[in-house]
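Q: How do we represent a protein-ligand complex in a form that can be generated token by token?
A: Start from the inputs.
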Amino acid sequence: MSFQAHYLSSLKRHQAIFETLDKHAQDLVTLYQRCAESVQNGGKLIFCGNGGSAADSQHLAAEFMVRYKAERAPIRAIALTTDTSILTAHSNDYSFDSVFARQVQGLADAKDIVIGLSTSGNSPNVNLALKAANKLGAYSVAFTGRDGGEVKDIAAQSIIISCDETARIQEAHLFMGHWLCEAFDHTLEQKASH
Ligand SMILES: O=C(CO)[C@@H](O)[C@H](O)[C@H](O)[C@H](O)COP(=O)(O)O
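Then emit the structure tokens for the protein with D-altro-hept-2-ulose 7-phosphate bound:
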């Protein structure tokens, strides 16, 4: 396949992703409402994932903590993928599988939302983090892909991007995270105009 044909075929996959995201519009509104309620009650948004999804976790936590578009107070958010001392000590002394669950146990409470990003839904460390969230009474959310994997039976809410290409699923997850930021900004703007 030529580069141009390959480019066009990747672009066409976005059409399928658009349809999946369209199907999930109401799920995202529900998620926004849960997040807004959590933040209003002193809760926080906790993200985790591996590889590209680790980067997306950090990206999204930064958007909430610092700024998306609107000037606003920080929204409490953290990614569990950034502290190399915690990540290496826990993986070395215990197990990589429980590296996020340990941090959920230490940082989360029932007011929080724990969002695991996993394109396969089968990453043990993400799945154990969401199980730990469930145990604490926090709201567990999976941004996942393919057939949803194991995580769809663990998370209280799963948003599944029905596509089998990792990169396209990650792009959809980032879109969903950005949309959540936009929903927070939009609500602030609405309040300011009243
Ligand atoms: O970003 C990519 C490929 O696009 C990879 O780094 C990818 O994130 C890694 O293979 C992850 O370990 C995959 O984990 P998951 O999405 O299945 O939970």
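Residues 24-186 form a domain with the Rossmann fold fold (CATH 3.40.50.10490). The beta strands are 45-49, 77-79, 113-118, 139-145, 157-161.
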